[in-house]
Amino acid sequence: MAADDARIDEPTGRAGPIARFHAFRRDKPHIFVLLTMMLAALAMMEPRIWVVLTISGLAMGAMVFLMASGMTLTFGLMNVLNLAHGAFISLGAFAGASVLLWLSTQANQPSLWTNLIAILPAFCFALLVAGLLGLVFERLIIRPVYGDHLKQILVTVGGSIIIMELIQVVWGPNELPVPRPDALKGAVFLPEWLPVAGGIALEKYRLIAVVLGLAIYGLLSWIIERTRVGILIRAGVESREMVEIQGYRIRLLFLGVFIAGSALAGLGGTLWAMYREIITAHMGDELMISVIVVIILGGLGSIKGCFYGSVLVGLINLYVGYLEPRLAAVATVALMVAVLMWRPQGLIPVIKL
Amino acid sequence: MSEALLSLTRVCADIDQYHILHGVDLAVPKGELTMLLGRNGAGKSTTLRTIMGLTTVTGGDIRFQGQPITGQSTPRIVRRGIAFVPENMGIFSLLTVRENMVLAAIGGTMDPARLEWIVDLFPPLKRFWDKPAGNLSGGQKQMLAIARAIIEPRELLLIDEPTKGLAPAIIDDLADAFEQLKRQQVTILLVEQNFNFSRRLGQSAAVMNDGRVVWSGSMTELAQDDNLQHQLLGLGMGEHQ
């Protein structure tokens, strides 16, 4: 067959360093912003402090990523603005904390393996409770308002208030202290022979949060990029009708994604609860600002964008919090504004608005 | 004419508040390529979308293999064995060619022999197999759209204006591919504006006007009767030579 009229751009010739820099900035905007921020911070503080803040920022980013990844998927695939996502975070935190309190004997042992007897059920219970709530929420509250953002905002804010009030009914109106398992307390020291960072104390829990965040990011990326369900999700982001024309029930896919997104919010809530060691019913609302910034900054519907957005938000919080604490609160939003002025679609958009 | 695989009886359909189909009667014979012709706005694309459950049916009956499918969900209709290639081709442009094909194989896996036959039919697909489908040219996208529809054996293919906006050389390639499908006795209902293409491929034909089928018969009969073409399709003498 003679049809050979594809127009796939092939690089031609050698590019100079300036052209290569522009190409890098255009093709890898997330890496460009991340490196710029890290280098700028390094120039403004002692290297040892920079290492500590960077690892802490990565840990915060990892936790925010878990909470935000579900929302970017539901927004990206289903075009649903679920402002009750924060309530799922709170519920997950309370569910996980309840298991930790119930298994406090195991949580208070110095052995990590004994601690895991409390931690793993806490994670599983948070995933289960938040996922089940997601199932009920999608059926009762979201389903009647698909395609109407204004109604989505109204009903999900209403749903959020109800969930948070129910949390107070079940767990009481006061703050709930959460015991961090013994093996996750304390710090590890970097070896003395390391240049610059030698002897620095790093909080164990933050390191674990980074590892867990990276693991979940890897798992989600693998599902989205490599599995049939992932291909379906990406296809659904492009055209829901065409997914149905291929023979798949998009509603079922929506439901599955919503449940998974809610469960991830619950898991993120439990991680956050162990990090802060004290939780309230409204903690999710406070985190929603970071979550919304992350999904807009990263680009709607993109897991990769969500991951880098979370890391950027975590880092800027810590860097600015150290350099000028009074500006810490506005730094996150300022970062989002700056990125959106440069790239209105976010760093790695999946959906073109 | 052989028995009808698909039949529409007095089908009426709306899109939003507009009444588009006003009682469509159509029979698609098994194992034949049927052309659905008509001027712009006659209701051809809406007829295909209505068969696929993508519009609101307000009256009439659609039967596939003798079973009613009126009002059923699109995925259910697809799983009965009907594949649909819409006018805009519906390619997932962010997915690779391979991923587009993987999704189209609703059984879960692609039959290697069938895949080989398809890439022989449409060689550019092999060359751009792991490239984003959005990078393909218009003709290649159409090939991918048809390849998706035939990656699994289907009872019926509904294809909406496959030649729209394509260069003549590509249209010839597509016509060759349809000839092969015809030889395999795949049942096809093809909406088309290009009369030369229709005349070359069609075995039976139906002509629509104002949301109704106003003529149906054999393609040979329509192709040989200039007056009928002029009356039904507004074609001038020699316009399709």
UniProtKB/TrEMBL annotation, chain A:
Q: Name one GO biological process term.
A: amino acid transport
GO annotations of cellular component type: plasma membrane
Carries keyword S-adenosyl-L-methionine? no
InterPro entries the record matches: ABC_transp_permease, BCAA_transport_permease
Which membrane topology describes this protein?
Multi-pass membrane protein
Please state which protein family the record places this protein in: Belongs to the binding-protein-dependent transport system permease family. LivHM subfamily.
- Please report the name of this protein according to its UniProt entry: ABC transporter permease protein
Where in or outside the cell it occurs: the entry states: Cell inner membrane
Q: Which GO terms describe its molecular function?
A: transmembrane transporter activity
- For the keyword Hydrolase, the answer is no
Q: Which residues cross the membrane?
A: 29-45, 51-68, 80-104, 116-141, 153-171, 205-224, 252-275, 287-320, 327-344
Tell me which species this is from: Salinisphaera shabanensis E1L3A
Protein keywords: Amino-acid transport, Cell membrane, Membrane, Transmembrane, Transmembrane helix, Transport
Which residues belong to the signal peptide in this entry? none
UniProtKB/TrEMBL annotation, chain B:
Q: Which residues form the ABC transporter domain?
A: 6-235
Query: Which domain of life does this protein belong to?
Result: Bacteria
User: What residue stretch is flagged as signal peptide?
Assistant: none
List, alphabetically, the SMART domains matched.
AAA
Which CDD domains does UniProt cross-reference here? ABC_TM1139_LivF_branched
GO MF terms, alphabetically ordered: ATP binding; ATP hydrolysis activity; branched-chain amino acid transmembrane transporter activity
Ordered alphabetically, the record's keywords are: Amino-acid transport, ATP-binding, Nucleotide-binding, Transport
Record SUPFAM superfamilies: P-loop containing nucleoside triphosphate hydrolases (SSF52540)
InterPro entries with a match to the protein in the record: AAA+_ATPase (IPR003593), ABC_transporter-like_ATP-bd (IPR003439), ABC_transporter-like_CS (IPR017871), BCAA_Transport_ATP-bd_LivF (IPR052156), P-loop_NTPase (IPR027417)
> A GO biological process this protein is involved in?
L-amino acid transport
Similarity comment: family membership: Belongs to the ABC transporter superfamily.
Would you tell me the protein name for this molecule?
A: ABC transporter ATP-binding protein
Query: What organism, scientifically named, is this protein from?
Result: Salinisphaera shabanensis E1L3A
